[in-house]
Amino acid sequence: MEPAEPTIDALGQFRLFPSLGMLGRSVNFTQANTFMVIGGLLTMALLYYGMRPRAIVPGRLQSAAELAYNFIYDMCVSQVGEEGKRFFPFVFTLFFFVLMGNLLGLLPYAFTYTSHIAITGALALMVIVVVTIVAIRENGTHFFTEYFFPAGTPKALAPLIIPIEVISYLSRPVSLSIRLFANMVAGHVMFEVFATFTVMLAGLGLFGPLIAVGPVVINVALVGFELLVACLQAYVFAILTCIYLHDAVHLH
Amino acid sequence: MSRRLFPPCRFACLAAALLLLSGAAASAAEGMPQLNFANPLTLAQIVWGAIIFAVLYVIFARSSLPQVAEVLANRETRITGDLEAARDAKAAADTAVAEVNAATARARSEAQASINAAVEQAKKEAADRARVLNERLEQQLQTSEGQIAAARNSALGAIREVATDTARVMVSRLTGRTPDRQAIDDAVGQALAARGQA
Does residue A16 lie within any of the structural domains? Predict the structure, then answer.
C-alpha cells in the first residue's frame, strides 16, 4: 500500500480471496468459484431464457442458444463420429466452463479463473481421466496394447515406440492445461502492464499525458485480440477433448 | 484437420509458459499467486470448481440440453410434415390436372363425333331430297314428252286431212272437175313421205 510510487504489479490480479463474506471464508469459497457460478448461470440463462419461446422460427436469443447447441453438437459428431453424441453434454459443459471463464475475465474487476494453473490442470486431468475411462470401456485392456503399440509395427521398434507413445499420451494434459493457462495469464499481464504504463506516463511532466494515450490505444486493441483468444482457447480445449475422445473410441 | 494445426502452436505455448513459469519462480516466492500452493485457497478453488462443474454437467445433461434438442426435433418433424403435406397437395393437384385434361380430350372427341354425325345426316338428307326431286322431274319430263308426242301426232294427222281437202279444192277450182279421191290421197301421202312426215 504505497501509492506514492506506482510500480508494475502485473500478478496481483491473480491473487485469490475468499468470496461471499463470512460464509465463503469459512468454507474457502474463492472469487474464482463465484465467477464459475456466474458463468454457469449465464450459460443456463442463455439456454433457458433463450429457448423459452420454443419457436419454430427462432428469434435472436433462441438462435444464439441453438447456435451454441449445434456448434458443440456438430463438433462432437464430426470429430468423434456417431459415438460423439454420448459425450456431447460433457464437451458442452467443458466448452462453456472455459469460455465463460475467459470472457468474464475480460470485464473490469472480474477474475479470470482460467488463469490459474490449478483450475486448467484439474480440467485437463479430468479430460484425460474421462478419455482413459472411455477408452478402457470401449476397447477393454486391448486398448493398452493396441494404442501404445499399434498392430503392424516391427517388434524391434517396441523399446522406442512404447515410451514415445506413453510420453505423448501423458503430455496431453500438460499441454492442454498450460496452453490455456499461459494464454490467459499472458493476456492479462499485458493488460496490467500497459495500464500501469498509462498511469506512470500520465504523471510524467508536461507531455506525459499526451504520450500516455499510446498504451491506452494498445490496450483497446488488446481487448479485441483477447476476445479472439478467449473464444479460440475455449474452442481449442473443446476440440482437443473431442480428438482425444475419438482416439479413445477408435484407437487412432 | 486440426491435429495438423496444433503441434506448432502447442510447442509455442509450452515454451512461453515455461519461460513465464521459470521467470516467475526466479523472481520471488510471492511472484505468481497461481503457484502459491501454501495458500489453502489455491486448492480449495479446485474442490469448489469440481463441485460447480459436476452440478453444471448434471443440469446441462439432464435438463437444458434435452430441452433444446426437443425444440430442434419439433422443428425437424414440423418441416418434414410440411414437406410431406406439400408433396401430397402437389400430387393431388397433378391428378386433378390430368383428370381435367382427360375430360377435355373426351369432350372434344365427343363433340367432333357428333359434328361428323350431323354432317353425315345432313348430307344423306340432302341426297335423298335431290333424288326425290330428280325422280319427280323425270316423271314430269316423261309425261310432258308423251303429251308433246300425242299433240304432234294428232297435229300430223290433221295435216294430211287438211292437205287432202286443200288439194281437192285447188284441183276442182283449177280444173273444174272433181278429182279422184283415191289419187289425191296417194299424192298427199307421197308428198308427206318425201318430206319425211308420214
Answer: no
